[in-house]
Each structure stands twice: as C-alpha cells, then as structure tokens.
Amino acid sequence: MSSTDPAPTLQALPSDQLRALQWRFADRFDLTMLIQSVRPVARGPVARLVAAGGRNTHDWTHEKNALLAIYDESGITAAFLEPEFGGFIEGPKNLALALVAFELSWVDAGAATCSLASNLGVAPIHERGTPEQVAHYMPLVCPPHPGDARKPTRVAFALTEPIPFVGVETGLLGGKMRVASWEEDQEPMLHIDKRGRFITNMDFANVVTAAVDSADPRIKGSCIVILEKTDPGLWDSGVPTRKMVHQLSSTCDPVFNQTVPASRIVGGYTIKDGVIIPNYTHSEVIEAVFRRTRVTVGLMTSSKLLSAVEPIIRYQRSRFRGGETGAPGSPRFDLGLQTKQDVVHRLVDIWATGEAGAALGFETARLFDQLDPLDRQKDKIFAEKGLTGRSAMKAMTKIQQDAIECVDLRTQSTDTRDNDRLESLEADPLVQYAILDAQANVFCPACKLWNTGHGATIMREAISLMGGYGITEDCPGFLPHKWMDAQLEATYEGPEAVQRRQLSVTMTNSLFVKQFEVWINELKAINCETPGTGACAVASAMELWLWTVRHLQDATDANGAKLFNSNRHGITFPLADALCWLLASRQQILDVINLGVTGAQDPSVAEELPGTLAFFTDLCHVQAARAAGETARICGEVVFGYINPPGCSCCSSDQQTFLRTRSKIDGCLYGFGIAKDRAANALTTVMIPEALDYPM
Amino acid sequence: MNIIVCGSLVPDPLQTLEPITGPTGPALKNEMMLPSWLDPWAGHALYEASNLAAKNPGSKVYLVSLGPKAKLQQVMMTVAQKVPFELIALDGSAGGFTDAAETAAAIAEAISAIPGLDLNNTLIFGGWESASRGAGATMQIVGERLGITDQFEGVDSLEIQADGSLKIMERVEGGKHQISVCTAPPAVLGWATGNLPEPRNNPQVGMANMRGIMPSLQKAKPSPVTTGDIAFASVSLPSQTRTTQVVKDVPPDQIAAELVAWIRG
Fold first, then answer.
1. A16-141 maps to which CATH number?
2. With an 8 Å Cβ cutoff, are B200 and A73 in contact?
3. Which residues of chain A neighbour B80 with C-beta distances below 8 Å?
4. Interface mutation vs chain B, best among A604, A607, A609, A613, most B CBs within 10 Å
5. Which residues does chain B have within 8 Å of residue A88's beta carbon, measured at their own beta carbons?
6. Sign of torsion over alpha carbons B155, B159, B164, B165
7. Which of A148, A351, A610, A641 has its Cβ near the most Cβ atoms within 10 Å?
8. Which residue has the higher pLDDT, A168 or B66?
9. Can you tell me the ipTM of this complex?
10. Residue range of the domain that includes B212
11. Handedness of CA A281, A133, A293, A52 (dihedral sign)
C-alpha cells in the first residue's frame, strides 16, 4: 500500500468466514454447516412467530409447539447427540451448542433456551448414565427420520423446586424417594414425589430427569432419577410460569408422584447391607451437567448485542428521511443521526462489548471441548487407582504442583529449561487436565456473569439509541424483547451472586494465578508487536488486579478484620467483576491477533480483512481502556475503601506501590480516544444490507 | 443415469448491490464480502435432479459450479445439507457481467472431463435464467458444445415414462405449457421453478457431501472467465419507486376492490 492510500476501514459487516476464523472454527465444516442450518430457522419461523406476537403469552401455544418439529428437521435437536445415536458431530460439542445458542439468540433467546433445555434434560444420562440408560434413551431423543412414524422423546430437567417466598432452591431437595416395594430377587421399586418450579420444556416433555433425596433409610443420599410420562402414578405438567421473558420456551411448575424401578437412577446403584446407594448423588450429576451449560447462556446475551448493530445503524441513517428537511444526497439524509458523534460513539461501545463477550464465551466453549476428553481420562485413571473423595483431592494437590511447574517451564528459554521434564508434563493428561480445569473454573462463571450482567446494561444502551422506537413492538431486531431477555440470562442457571461466589474462590487458585501471570507477559509482548489493541492497558490492569488480590489476602481493615474473606462480598465480588472485564478484553485482543494471522492465509477474506481487522483492533482498544478503567476503579475502592483517612501523613509503602501500579494504566490509555473516533467514523461508512434478514 | 446440474452462486438479494467499475469491468461494490446463495433457478434444477435420481436407483447427481472457490465453499455449507451430489468446482468469477459463451465453454469442458461419463445416458440440468446473469443463453451453449441438441427451456416438470422417454413440460407464452416427448437422454433442461419445495436440511447428508466437496474445492480448476468482447456502456440499478400506502382498518371488501382495479389497470 502506498503512503497515499487511505487507511483500511470497515467496508461491510463481518462475513461468516471471517467470524469462523476469528472464533477459530474455520477448519470445522461440521460447525459451519450447523450455523447454516440454524440460521434459517432463527431468521425464518422463529422470527415470524415473534413478529406475529408469539411472545405475547407465556402459554405454550400450537404455534410455539410447531417449532419443535422445525428444530428436529434442521438438525438442531440432533446436534447434541453422538453420531452413533443419530447425531452428526464427532467429539465434544460445547462449541457446537454455543454456536446454536448464538444463532438462535440473534433473533430470540427463548428459542435457544427451548432447544438447549432438551439437551439439558438428557445431559444427566449423557454425562453419568449407565451404558444401558445411554443406549436406551439417546436413540429415543434423536428425531425420527422421514418415513419413521415414531414420535421423538422430549426430555425436561426437573431440579428446582417451589419454596414459599424464595422461588427456587437447588441445594436442598424437597423431592423425595422411598422404596415402594422390594421383592426378593427383584429390582426395588421406588416411589418418587417431586414438585418442580420453573421447569423448562414441561408442556411437551414425556421424560424427565428429576433430582430427589432419600426419605427412606433403605436408600442413601440423593440422586437424579428418570421418570416417564407413562409410569404409574401422577404426571402433572403443571401450570405455566407467568414469565415475561423467553416466551418461546415452555416453563411450568410440574408435580410428579410416580413409581419407577430403581434402574432409573441415573448412573445406577449398588446395594450394601440392604441399602440402595446411588452411584452418583444429584450434586455430582449437576456438577457434570451445569458446568458447561452456563457458557451458552453467556453467549446468548453477546449475540443480542452484536445483532443490535445493524438495526441501529439503519435506524440512525434513515432517521430524517422522509422529513421536510434534508434532501437526498445531504448529510442529514444519508447519515441521519450519524452526523452526531455521541450516537456512533455509543454504538462503538455496544459493538465492543458484544465482541468481548463473544470472544470470552467462545473461548470458554472451546476450552470445554479440550477439557471434556481430559476430564473423562482423569475419571478413568482415578477409578483405576481407586482414588475417590479425600484421596482424589490429595492426588489433585500433587498434580496441581506439577501443573504449575509445567506452566512455568513453558515460559522458560528452550536453551536453559529441562525440556525432558516439560515433555513428560505436557504428555501427562492429569497435568493438562489440571491446567485447563483451573482456567475453566474461572472462565465459565466469568462469561456467565459478565456477558449477561454487563450485557444487559449495554443492551439498555442499544434500546436508548433507538429513541422511543426502541420500546415499541415495531422496533426492528426485537430489541425490547432482547433487553428483557438479557436480564433473565443474568439470572437463570445461577444468578450473578452465585457466579461471583464461585469466582471469588477459583480466581485465587494458585494454578490459575500462575497462568494469569504468564498472560500478563504475553499481553505485554503483543503490545510491542501489535500496538493499538490496548494490550498494554489490559496487562497493566491485570498487574494491578493481581497486586490487589495478593495485598488484600493479608491486609486488614480499620478494625483489624481480615479483608479477603469469603463472607466479605464487598471485597471479593467487585474483584471478581474486575477479573471478568479483564478476561473478556484479553480474549477479544487474542482473537483479533489470531484473526490477523489466520485471515492472512485465507483468500476468501482477503478483501475484507484489512478494514475489518483495523476496525476490530480499534474496538479492542476501546474495550481495553474501559476494562482497565473499571479495574482501576474497583481496585482503588477496595484497597483504600476500608482504611481510615491517613490525615496529613503519607501513604504507606503498600499504598504507594498501588498508586504506582495504577498510574501505569493511565499511561497506557494513549490513543484510546483516537481509536474510538476512528471506529465511530467507520460506522458512518460501513455498508449494511438493504433490509434486515428477518421480519419485525 | 447421470444428472449434471450447472449452477453457481449469486449475492444475497437483501444486500446493498451497488454497481461499480472494477479493474476488469463492471462489478458490485464489496462483492467478495457479500454473503451468497445458490442461484435460485439452479436450486430448482438441483432439487428436481435429486428427486429424479431418488426415483431412478443407480442415478448420480453432479453439481458443476463456476465461482470463486472460497465463496463456493461457503455456499456449499448450506447446499450440501439439502441433497446428495458430487461437486465439480471451477474457480472463476460468478459475477453478473461475465460472457455467457465463456462461462458455458468452461462448464462444458468440465463436464467433458468427468471420468467415465456416458453422455448418452446423461441429462444436463440448469436454470433457464440466473438471478445474477440473465443472459438466458448459457445452458443452450453448454448443450451445443457437448453436442446435445435436444434442449428444453423453462421446464416445470419432467417425467420418465415406462419406455424410458422423457415427457417434458416447458413454459410458453400466455401462462401455458408446451408438452414434449424426448425419446431418450441426452438432453439439456433449463428449469423454471419446477414443482418441488426446498428440501429439508439433512446434516447427515451434509456431512457425507462435504467429504467429497472439500477435496473438489481444493482441486478446483482455475477458469478465468471474463466479460469477453462485451462493452458495458453503463450499469445501474433499477430505479426504486415506492408507492406503498400504509393504512390501517381498511375493510377487506375495499382492499379487494382496489386490488381488482389495479389488476385491471
């Protein structure tokens, strides 16, 4: 490019291939095909139903029910299944399901919830079922092929229960199981008594996996049990929940009072001294299931933010067309509101937040795809060695030390480090499991918390950019629905406090912290090689966050009470929030850097890459500055907020260290405003389609 | 029987299609960035071909596509899930301004190069039109180059009769059809809409197709079709005239009366 050529800028909205490169699945044609299957469903029948007012009732209507067959036909239902049971995607499916949720949520997240809840229902069997349970139920869930008259089995997951004035409770179970009969040499029959609350898919489910606790001395502990609609006893789907969001999913408060054979206990059972002992407690099954499903929820909100960009640009540009002022060809006619800097600046913020959330969400989904096989390997190795409970924890402690060593060796020079040792650690599945597990334990709640919570706030910004139009049914892109839905997404599958609580524990794991230190250095290197991404600001903010966490773990408040304490949510929760900002911004930068590398090798994006890359780099810079600023604010509040004013005396040496570390962030904000201006200008020239590709 | 469908991609019609003058002649602004679809006319031909193959066991469907291979790959992600076929990819322009004769020559050459193809047991399908280049001549030239002179355009149905002959219904003027009987393949059929809906997605078919499609795309032969000797004096979009009225609470009788009046002119 000659020096007179204009700087590359965003020409058109990012193509699918560019997104595939950015989110690192361009080599997976099964996933690309899945997207092309889901998109017409989202932007066709789902969008038409929303446009026709299908969300105006919480009842499960015939029209909503008709979507189920469409999900079946498009391959959405089978995406969860293994190929041997009628699925078509080999291997772990976290990224695949994340992409399904992302595409459906682009139009309506209730549709995504409906689809994913079916997977959730069958997930206990998939994750912990006996071979017989898996072989029996998985093929039933697979949609019938053309010509097959079989009706597909629809599964719901009944965990949460009604508790007066509280809503739901998952830790304590009101659902009970008792021995109904136990003939000699016969399988015990169990009597199940379960009331559910906010159970998704109940209007059409004919199988339920329900969490119950023992109310019988002949059964030990809790379990998940499989109930079928045809089992003897009461199966009452219950009244619909009067929800104001996600109306394209079915939610009810069901009642079950049925008798089933003990073979329905998920994962099976053993009998010892005349007591039925389930092989897995309900908590163990839930842990295996819910660990992954939060990621897709986080991506639902990010999808909404990115989906809002095109309708907002179109609204801004056409705002004054048709009025008496502003003839065709005039800036007022062509650009409309986009002649005003504020509206495009705010749209840059929305887009940047969506990008950061999507980056974090898809990274977490990919992380679980890597982790899943290692997780199973770990379980197998531990089972072979007879390691359970305390002995397993003890073994993991040793593995964690090896993992820290592995992370450390990776950063050392190949000339001086013990390469043989590193090679053996890299080949050790337990070490690799520990490394990824430490990340997943942070990334999963982080993406659920930040993408949905902060996403809901930014979704409000999106609504505000549409003016009064934004809170009408006529608003294109269904933005008002999406705003409301975002709040639900921040709540279900563990509300924000639950995610913060988990983060406050996992973020101080020494193995995670070790990796965090490495990431700081990596971002510094990126800043040297590719300036303009804001990597410097994020790295400095990560240093400040780490310093603050370490400082607070030893520090006390003005009354001498320990500051970093699991019950001091005023300290730990804001730090968890700050970490989320940093992880999202870091991942956004890493994805854009990766896009630059992989995109350069892909001729199909050659034309759009330079401009889009420049624009995405500016979005990274904008988001990095915001993330660094939030971190600086939070860290400052918790470091200084719990000590009395020093009067005229100087700050302590710790405080001076904090101030020096914090001031580095300010020094990294160079060019942030220029980047934001440039990104905002790009929004005034980017080519958008003539019309939205789904109805309004 | 072999059924060879000729069809390529066109830009998503919802996109902003802005003509510009590129280095090699007229083009669309940001053409390579625009999402693309299988040309709908070719799509009808492909679905009819698949249906015909399903009714005639042992038949095989090929899709010969001339387009930028990177864009073809994207389009195939959708098309491959519809019906089983083998792709023969040609890497070249699918733009709306290329010369129909050059395009037809490249396609005919690719068909001739299919290993072991018995042209006497082959039907050549395609769209009688294209959503991007409405020359209306490409399929005829393909047929001529292959020496196939039994050609039918605007086809809406094809029935293979008990004696193996082809009963073909073509659109003619006045909303009528012409029915012809062709004794046997080979024949060229430029399809109109046919009678079949878009097949439902079948991811299993997609996975099976893609195992052949990806290698085909990798070895796609460069086919540098151009605008030939055509000189474009000017290129512009049809002017948009919006006469939409937004009115509410109009009685159905009045709406019907207005429609009838409009139809009668």
1. 1.10.540.10
2. yes
3. 33
4. A604
5. 203-204, 206-207
6. negative
7. A351
8. B66
9. 0.83
10. 2-233
11. negative
In a domain, B149, yes or no: yes
If contacts are CB pairs under 8 Å, which of residues 62-91 in chain A contact chain B?
73-75, 78-79, 88
Q: Judge: domain A155-280, CATH 3.40.50.620.
A: no
Cβ neighbours for A74, distance < 8 A, ≥ 6 positions apart? A37, A38, A40, A41, B200, B201
Range with lowest mean pLDDT among A414-418, A555-559, A580-584, B48-52 = A555-559
* Mean pLDDT value across chain A: 94
- State CA A371 to chain mean position distance: 16
User: pLDDT tens for residues B135-156?
Assistant: 789 999 999 999 999 999 999 9
Element (H, E) at A46: none
Residue B67 forms part of a structural domain: yes
Q: Does A334 touch chain B (CB under 8 A)?
A: no
Residue B249 resides in a domain:
no
B111-117: average pLDDT: 95
The tally of domains found in chain B comes to: 1
Query: Considering only alpha carbons, which residue of chain A is nearest residue B208?
Result: A88
The residue type found at A583 is: L
- Residue A437 CA, chain-centre distance (Å), reads 16
Task: State the architecture of A291-685 in CATH terms.
Answer: Up-down Bundle (1.20)
Among the listed residues A361, A345, A339, the one whose alpha carbon sits nearest the alpha carbon of residue A625: A345
- What ranges do the domains of chain A cover? 16-141, 155-280, 291-685
CATH number for the domain including B196? Answer: 3.40.50.620
In this complex, the residue of A88, A607, A688 whose CB is nearest that of residue B204 is: A88
Q: Does A460 score more than 80 pLDDT?
A: yes
Is the pTM higher than 0.90? yes
Q: Report if residue B238 sits inside a domain.
A: no
